[in-house]
Amino acid sequence: MGKAGEVRFSLIKLFWHRIEEDDINGLSAQLAYFFLLSLFPLLIVLFTLLPYIPIPHEDMLYLIKRFAPDEALDLIEKNVNYIMSNRNSGLLSFGIIGTIFAASNGIDAIVRAFNKAYDVKETRSFIVVRGMDILLTFGMILVLILAIVIPIFGREIGVFLFSLLGYSSQFLKLWNALSWLVNAIILLLIFTGLYWIAPNVKLRCKSVFPGAIFATIGWIISSLGLSFYVRKINDFSFMYGSIGTIIVLMTWLYLSAYIIVIGGEINAFYSEKNRKGC
């Protein structure tokens, strides 16, 4: 092994030690729990704020449909359909405040995980942190709206324009391929914003790109991999009955949390190395 190889191996050992020291498995389990608690409140806020957009609420689950395992998606869709069919005006008034607060719990858990990655204590006041959590939640909702609107309306506009030239079928093939790139860019924007703003550390936006890129690619691969595993190899519903759906959903949330935390650790690791001049 050459000198360059020894340096890389040493860095890998240091990073692995960091992962064990910060108890990534435990942090990911905590994050998965808070993700579960905040998932449906986040969807409630999203669907409540968009009642007049002429898009079926089934299409608003576009991003989840692209990546989530079928069992997890079924559970999410059933609960969203129930919520939408029993929706009342209370959600549009004072009730939405509590819903937004609940939805921001997932962001708050991410903030604490990132602070641990950078080995810093939270010195910002509770009001500041909670306000940031809520703003980031609204930011995620806005990005999710774009993730919904761009593919749906972009497809319709493209079909109309290309049909004038007689190329609608070719455009649909091209759009289906490009939609994956659009989704990846949207996810990259979400992760970049989280890694940049959430930690109690002053960071340059470009310094969080390594973790954001890792999280984007890792989340897509892990989600699609879990979907393939559940669909083709191991049917959890057959093994565990109705509770298998919960197991798949929690596994998906845990993998998502693990990828996000590792991305934060990558950014913190490189930030520390840069400060030390390594």
Automatic annotation (TrEMBL):
Q: Record's GO cellular component, any one? A: plasma membrane
Q: Which InterPro entries match?
A: Virul_fac_BrkB (IPR017039)
Residue ranges annotated as transmembrane are 31-53, 91-114, 134-154, 174-196, 208-230, 242-266
Q: What is its main location?
A: membrane
Keyword annotations for this protein? Answer: Cell membrane, Membrane, Transmembrane, Transmembrane helix
**Subcellular localization(s) per the UniProt record:** Cell membrane
Q: Name one Pfam family in it.
A: Virul_fac_BrkB
Its record classes its membrane topology as:
Multi-pass membrane protein
NCBIfam families attached here? yihY_not_rbn
Write down what this protein is called: YihY family protein
Task: Name the gene for this chain.
Answer: yihY
